[in-house]
Amino acid sequence: MPKETAKNRILRVASDLFYREGIRAIGIDRIILESGVAKSSFYRNFASKDDLVAAYLEYHQDLNAKDLDEVQRQHPNSNAMQLHALIDKFVEKMKTPGYRGCPFANTTVEFPDSSHDNHIKAVKGTDENWNRIAILAEKAGAARPLELAELLRMLCNGAIMLSYMKKHDFNPDLFSATAHTLVDSHLFSWTVSRKDD
Amino acid sequence: MPKETAKNRILRVASDLFYREGIRAIGIDRIILESGVAKSSFYRNFASKDDLVAAYLEYHQDLNAKDLDEVQRQHPNSNAMQLHALIDKFVEKMKTPGYRGCPFANTTVEFPDSSHDNHIKAVKGTDENWNRIAILAEKAGAARPLELAELLRMLCNGAIMLSYMKKHDFNPDLFSATAHTLVDSHLFSWTVSRKDD
DNA sequence: AAAAAATGGTACAGATCTGTACCGTTAATG
DNA sequence: CATTAACGGTACAGATCTGTACCATTTTTT
């Protein structure tokens, strides 16, 4: 089997470092050291550090898209269950030891200038993700899908921030219960009986 | 009237710059330039940049405490109304042009190392604030005050992040309505009739 | 095996940032 | 008015960070 390319190794190591320790805090030298790659190899594969950051954001965008794909595969006949599964998946992520919040939100905070490429790309990343969820909410039969999606987004972002700041002192159970209830209430509020979708 | 001290001018200018453009993005030279102070004067008043960051965090902690004091003065006879007024005050803040999220949350993202002084102080800042709100919820007669406070905290943090990332595309009305309803539901869920406190 | 592509190693330029040293000047205070 | 405290100006040390230049080596492909 072919050896992992230098580009892949760099992106893998950098993604981990960027996420865990922050983009601005991690220098090129650190990435080179931990990925065991020559500096010249780095700049052959990435035009600049910002270029690597862009790849890092695209990588997480792919991860999010795959999560959505997965819940759609697991529950092909119920958009409602897809929403609930998405919440569960999200809670599981928050429980993992190395969890450090949303990479897109963190990036926008590390690059406050809203005209900066990294900032723009990060905003676009979450938007695409939540747009898909809004479509899911619509397909699931929510009376006001955009409203449900926005409330879910608020709740999730808040839970992310809380779990990030409070670490193990944060219990995601309350978030989980509230999010599930929120979905149900929006799906059932406009009709008394449920129709399987 | 006495001229503003150099220390005050530095803190005032730095707080604005740190908040608007980020702590790591702002160098000492920029602070010196915009506050019209000599570099030597800076280091006479602050031992280091981190020392200034600590003062910046304390400054925002004071602002939060004053907001709480104010709503308690405005509604001395109803803890419930204090909670609602706090939400309104928060919404107003989000609507102001230069709003750039929670300085404490942003600081923890800019300094991901949880053992870093800035990170620790920022976490402590929000905790103190929300502890006071939890006490308010208890005094207002919430059945589960800690739960109400945590849900409010999640919603607020989420709304902060959304308004930060979406800027003017974010309409805080949905947040406002949801937060007010949340407070009411937690205050009235355990009893049918309201008793003025 | 020969050619081509990818990688390694390293020195260094150039910019930036924090913090110090040193001295002169202004403002408050007795 | 004299003393003391606060401030201004600036040069510079030391560290760090991004990015380039140059050449040797290894791996892959033909």
Automatic annotation (TrEMBL), chains A, B:
Q: Which UniProt keywords apply?
A: DNA-binding, Transcription, Transcription regulation
Q: Which residues bind DNA?
A: 27-46
List the InterPro entries. Answer: Homeodomain-like_sf, HTH_TetR, Tet_transcr_reg_TetR-rel_C_sf, TetR_C
Q: Name one Pfam family in it.
A: TetR_N
Where does the HTH tetR-type domain start and stop, copy by copy?
Answer: 4-64
Q: Where are the transmembrane segments?
A: none
Superkingdom field: Bacteria
Keyword DNA-binding recorded: yes
Q: What is this protein called?
A: TetR/AcrR family transcriptional regulator
